[in-house]
Every structure is written in C-alpha cells, then in structure tokens.
Amino acid sequence: MRGRRFVLMLLCMPALLFLTVPLLGLLAKADVARFGVYVCCEEVTSALSLSLITATASALISLAIGTPLAYLLAYGQFRGKRLVDTLVDLPVVLPPTVAGLALLMALGREGLFGHRLEAMGISLTFTTAAVILAQTFVSCPLFIRQARVGFQSVPPHLILASRTLGASSSRTFWRVTLPLAWHALVAGLIMAWSRAIGEFGATLMFAGNMKGTTQTMPLAIYAQVTGEMQIKGAVVLALTLVAVSFLVMVVTKMLLAHEVKTPDSQAVALV
Amino acid sequence: MRTVVVLLVLLVATAMPPAAQAGQLTVFAAASLTEYVRGLEPIFEKAHPGVTVRTNLAASSECRLQIQQGAPADVFLSADSTSLALLTSANLAEKPQLFAKNHLVLIVAKRDRIGIKSPRDLTKRGLKLILPQQASPIGKYTYRVLTNLEALYGGGDYKRRVLANLVSEEQNVKAVVTKVVLGEADAGFCYVSDLTPEVRARVKVIALSPDVNVTATYPIAVTTASRQKALARDFVKLVLSPRGQALLAKHRLIPARKTK
Lengths: 271, 260
Fold this sequence. Notes:
heterodimer, A: mainly alpha, about 0% strand, globular, B: 10 helices, 10 strands
C-alpha cells in the first residue's frame, strides 16, 4: 500500500507543480522592499476596491437569478430542457472578447435593446454597471452548474417526505432543499466570484477601461505592464489580487466547514 | 500505456521552439500598420518561396514589452522611435531605420449626437470620448495633440475639459476606431492610415490643422535574437525599397524615403 501511495503522489506532482510554479514566479519577481509604495497608490486602491465591489455584486446577482434556474434544471422535466441547458452553459465556452462583443451588440448604444434603453436615458456602456453585467454574464453559468448539482444531490425521498407531511413547495424549498444544497450554492458562489474578479476581455469590450469607474484589477495590471512602472508594478498588483482572492476563498471555506458537513469531511480515506 | 507514450511525444513536439522552424519570418508591427503589413506579406512570400510570414500586430509598447520578455520576433516595425530606442539601448534590436510617417485625425461617430464640427467641440458635456492607452505611441501622440490644441485655443482648461469626457482608454488604435465606427463612442483620435475605405464610409472625419498635428515616425529594425537574420534583413530591404515605399502610400502612410 505504501508503494502505491508513493506512485500516486508522483503522478500528482505535475499538476501541483504546474499550478504553483507560476505563482512562485510572481513571488520571485516581486519588489518586496517597495511593495507598500506600489500598493498604496491611488490607482491600485481604486482598481482593487472596484474589483471587489463588482465581483461581489456580480456573484450576488448570480445567486439571485441563478438559483431559480438551477432549481428548474435540477428538478424540472420539460420540452427543450436540453436547449436551455446548452444556452446556460454557452457563456462559459465563449471567448471573453466574444462575450463582450455580444453584450455590446445587444446592450450598446446602437445595440438591439440598447437603443431602446438609450431612449429611456439609460446608457450602459462605459459604466460600472457594465462591468457588473459583463462579469455576471461570464460567471453566472458557473454558479448555475454548481447549484444544479447541489439541488440534484438532495435525496429525493426527503423532499417527498416533506411534501407528504404537508409542507408546501415553498416551505420544502426553504426548510429542506436549500439547507441540504447550501454548500454547493456557496461553492458555486466562490466559483462565480473568482471568475468575475478575473474577467478582462468582456469588461474591456463592453465597459471600457477608465480608472475609478471601469478599470478593474486585471485591466490595471495590464495597464501597468505596458505603462511606466512596467513589470514591477504589474507583479505587485498581480500578487495583491492573488492574495485577496486566496483570502476570500479560504475564509469562505472555513465558514462553510463550520456550518455543514461537506462531502470532503465525510470522505473515507481510501489512499 | 501506448496512449501515454503518444501523449508524451505530442507534448514534447509542441514544446519545440517555433522559431527553429526554417522558412518562417516573425514580424511584430504596430496595429496601425495592419493593412500595410498584410499587403507586404504576399510580396515577400512570392520573392522567397517556401517562407511564411507570421505577424503579431499590437500597440508598439506591447510589442516592445513582448520582445523584452523574449518573444521570438525577427523584425519590429514600431509606430514611434521610443519603443525601438528602448530595445536598441538594451541590445535587443539593431540600429533602426525610418521607413514611414503618419499623422493623426479626429473621427466622429456617424450618428453625431453631440454635434462635433471641430476639435473645440470635444469639450461639450455628455460627449463620450475614447482614447488609446497613454503608454502606446498613438496615446502619447494624442495627448500631445491635445496639448497643442489647448495652446491654439489660447490656453485655458481645454485639455482638462476634454479629458473629463474620456470614458475609456483602449488597448490600441484599432479598438478606438472600432468603437467609433460602431457608434458606441462619440469621438476618438486615430491615424490617417486607419481611415480605410470601410472606416471612412462609417465615420465623420475631422482633419487636424498642421499647427497642432503630430508627425508619427515609424522605424524598423531587426532583432538581435532573431534566428532568421538574413530573411529579416531582406524584409527590411523590401520595406525600404521603392516598391515597399510605394505600398505605404497605397495604405495612406507617408513614405520616409523619397519615391520617384
């Protein structure tokens, strides 16, 4: 058994190395002495706060609009279900620039629905709202996928039991289904948040790049790379983003571990 | 087991440095040279049978950065002297030679909602102005034009009011042109060479007076790390030849060398 475990560890090394070496590269090139100087400047703080606010808003919107759809896809049986399923998954495989272009074509000033919005005085392009829209478009499907799996993993007999005991659909959802699927929803939220905070192409296309309103961290890093501070500034920004994302994910997972028994904690050690 | 071996072989094969392939020339060029470089490709390939030209078109500052980081470029056509000078001083490029010039122009969306007849109107409230990113050559030229315009209009806070209308700093000049053509932005600056017939048909063009306009100078150089130096030098020769210079004029660029 010992020998097999060693072989398994060996087989895991490529993946582990591949995923951590780039991060080590960033750390190695970081100008630690002047870290504070780079991070505290106004550009960075505005980009960071903008990224955090928009990604969180986007994740919450995904939660609100994605949960009903995930529920339908998990439990519903209807004509065209496969089509709906594919449409929901589509933004995930679309290159971000295509997603941005699509949003522009639909909601831009000259867009399909955009010009009607324009007539009502609503102009979406080049606004922070546009950033949130672009981020939600690319990350909502990730949440829906996770949430759907979560709902499907709720033992059906529990739902049936609840209904036969007289609870309404709604009560069953809030008191039985949701608490049992909760960890999957949060996992989905983390995925959506991570995807949203890393979005570059779609926001650049649809929302543009303007310090303070639409320049999120990825865009700021890119601007640094080609700007004056060049690589050094970019590395510092990149590390800041990595650190913040890491922190958020760790904290969320810790909170999760306290609330509910996740599949991880219950897994039997087979290795 | 066999599948593992096949996969490993494929992995190793794809990891082979592409520059080692014979008969391929990698050209890095400023985005504003898109049409020109595309026009050069068939001419060069015809004169060198078996050679394919690969191009990377991006803002010169981006190209410069990529070359600094080791990108396998053989030749670099830059939209300003600074980007190439940075490479030459770091011994990454050979001595540059001037091959073209360009001027800037103001473009306005066809559905002119604000009413822009001259650069002075760029201060109007509610205007959506887009500019190229400041680090790029066109970005630097544009900001210089704005400074010149402010001087022309007798100082004041023209530049500040215009920049208050800025809604986005785009990656390169082509992105600026696209958004104005689409009508998503009201106005933007670009090069005269970007006014292809398709673009001209879909935007309003406002020429800039020579007093305020900037002459963009385009140098070309072979990279020191190039593994195709002979081909690269041939490419430079083509660009500087009467034929190459005549092609510039066809694509609305100004030849740096006098042509008959």
